[in-house]
Structures are given as C-alpha cells and as structure tokens.
C-alpha cells in the first residue's frame, strides 16, 4: 500500500478497531444521518444494494469522504462482471476512497426484486485477488497498466457459524492469501461457536495476517429475530436469546433486551485472543450505533 488511512493505521498499530455500517436508502437526496456523524466511529461501511436497489454505495462513500469520514466501500460480485467491477474500483480510487470490502452478495431471491438476473462472473476471492494485483502491479486483469496511483486496503467477510469448520477456515484462508487485510464477520450471537472459529484461525496464523472484526447486530424485536433466522442462512441466533427477547414484553422492552444481549456478547468476546475489533451492523437502523457504543463503553478503551 502506498498511502495510509485511518483503518490501515489502526491495523498497523494493533488498536482495537470499531467500524459501523450505513445502509443507504433509495433516494436522490443523499445526506449522511447526524446519528452516524456523531456516533464516534470514523470508519463507516457503505452497504452495496443488499436487499435491492438503493443509492449507489460508491456515491455514498464519496459523500462520506467529503464529510470528513472514512468509508469502506462495499462491492458485491452478484450484480457486476469483471469489467464493471474494475471500473467501479478505479472510480472509487479516483474519488479518494481507500478501503474496499469484497462480497459475493446475497442471492437476488432474498431481495425485493427476486426476478433479477445475477451475474457472479467472479466470486469474492477472485475479486480480492484482482484488487491485490491492481495494488501490487498497477495493472488490470488483462495486464494493461493503470494510469496514476492506485492504493486500496482490501477486506472480506466471513461467517463463523458455517460448518464444516475446516471448509469454513479454508475459505477464510484463501481470502487472506488473496490479499484481504481485514475480515468482518456476520453477526455474532453464539459466543461459544465464535470462539471455536477464532481459535481455528489463531491456530492457522490467520489472525496475525488480517484484522478480525466481529459483527454485532442488535436485535430490535422477536419478529426481527425470527425473520433473520428463517430467511438468511448466515444468521445463527440461539433459541435461548430469541426467547429472552420474546419474553421481555412490549416493543420497547424487546428492543432494550436485544441491546442488552449485544452488550453481553461484546463483553464476552472483546478479550478473545486474535480478535482485533468489532463491526457494528446497523441493518438500516443507524440510530442504534451510538446507543450500543455508549452502553458497551466502547470508546472508553
């Protein structure tokens, strides 16, 4: 990498890192929520059409740069071939964006437009490899040179709850070997299973090569917990936690219980060997980020 940035500096320094997610809306009047500006997190992921068309993650990432915040530009391979992917990545670099998170993306059947055609020309591991080549050699896939400087910190996503464990770890290893410098996980609810996954990464030496950031998504209701666990296979929510939220009472009480469970999860995992930080997943409810940070005392470390 030729140029440092906040996230890279924190990784190099061995700091405990906190990132958060912003899920744009389908809007032509783009504005960054005040709650996001004031939450105290300087590195913000911008989601790339996770559930259907919203304002471009590239455009919102550029706006975050203008607002003095550092974006992590999420890009999924579901909707673009390798031509469009490289084009958007070059555009991101030209706009001053320095971090990129590579994902394959949810299948379109989970979006509001299930009839959409998917692309999946390449997967996330191949995309990481392409960006690493752009970083190290200054060339595109076909070998043609990139004019001007190109520097992008590359990240990937992992799901600690997929089994068999050995295949799960192998895929994470491939992402790091391809060039991923940070790994943000899917939401953690079961700390025992997460510890098992993290121990396996420690054993393979992966936690020394890439910063592991555990995903934290506060549940706001029992209905949300049921929907996530039934619709998305990457969410594993123990029945005991779902019952605690259900038994909490009305909507406000359930939201408070969900927040409490997230704080408990943070307290259980933040001292685990190999964990370098947390990624707060908003699910489009950015107001909850600052509340969770405050309740967990994250910025007091």
What does this structure look like?
By secondary structure, this protein is an alpha/beta fold. The protein is built from eleven helices and eight strands. It has helices at 6-13, 34-37, 57-66, 82-94, 124-137, 165-178, 191-204, 222-231, 239-247, 251-269, 287-296, and strands spanning 17-22, 43-46, 70-76, 99-103, 153-158, 182-187, 211-216, 275-280. Helix 5 runs parallel beside helix 6 (165-178). The radius of gyration is 19 Å and the shape is globular. The mean pLDDT is 93.
* Model regions low in confidence, pLDDT < 50 over at least 5 residues: none
- The first-level CATH class name: Alpha Beta
Instruction: Please state the average pLDDT score.
Output: 93
Number of domains: 1
- Helical/strand content category: alpha/beta
Question: Shape, please?
Answer: globular
- Tell me what portion of residues adopts beta-strand conformation: 15-25%
By CATH, the topology is TIM Barrel
Give the termini separation: 28 Å
Count up the helices: 11
Core attributes:
single chain, 301 residues, alpha/beta, TIM Barrel
Secondary structure topology:
Blueprint: H1 6-13, E1 17-22, H2 34-37, E2 43-46, H3 57-66, E3 70-76, H4 82-94, E4 99-103, H5 124-137, E5 153-158, H6 165-178, E6 182-187, H7 191-204, E7 211-216, H8 222-231, H9 239-247, H10 251-269, E8 275-280, H11 287-296
Parallel strand pairs: 1-2, 1-8, 2-3, 3-4, 4-5, 5-6, 6-7, 7-8
In short:
The protein is an alpha/beta fold and 301 residues long. The chain is 42% helix and 15% strand.
């Amino acid at each position: 990498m030729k140029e440092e940035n906040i996230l890279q500096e924190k990784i190099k320094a061995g700091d405990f890192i906190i990132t958060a997610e912003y899920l744009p809306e389908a809007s032509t009047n783009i504005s960054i929520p005040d709650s996001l500006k004031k939450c105290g997190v300087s590195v913000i992921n911008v989601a790339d059409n996770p559930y259907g068309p919203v304002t471009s993650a590239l455009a919102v990432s550029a706006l975050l740069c203008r607002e003095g915040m550092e974006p992590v530009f999420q890009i999924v391979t579901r909707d673009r071939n390798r031509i469009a992917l490289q084009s958007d990545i070059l555009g991101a670099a030209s706009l001053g964006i320095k971090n990129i998170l590579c994902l394959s993306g949810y299948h379109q059947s989970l979006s509001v437009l299930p009839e959409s055609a998917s692309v999946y020309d390449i997967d996330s591991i191949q995309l990481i490899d392409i960006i690493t080549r752009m970083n190290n050699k200054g060339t595109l896939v076909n070998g043609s040179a990139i004019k001007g400087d190109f520097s992008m910190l590359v990240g990937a996503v992992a799901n600690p709850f997929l089994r068999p464990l050995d295949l799960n770890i192998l895929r994470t290893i491939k992402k790091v070997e391809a060039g991923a410098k940070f790994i943000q996980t899917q939401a953690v609810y079961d700390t025992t299973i997460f510890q098992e996954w993290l121990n396996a990464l420690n054993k393979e030496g992966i936690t020394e090569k890439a910063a592991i950031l555990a995903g934290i998504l506060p549940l706001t209701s029992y209905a949300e917990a049921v929907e996530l666990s039934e619709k998305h296979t990457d969410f594993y929510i123990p029945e005991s936690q779902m019952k605690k939220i259900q038994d909490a009472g009305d909507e406000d009480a359930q939201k408070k219980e969900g927040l409490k469970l997230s704080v408990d999860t943070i307290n259980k995992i933040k001292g685990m060997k190999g964990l370098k930080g947390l990624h707060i997943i908003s699910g489009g409810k950015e107001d909850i980020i600052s509340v969770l940070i405050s309740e967990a005392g994250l910025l007091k470390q």
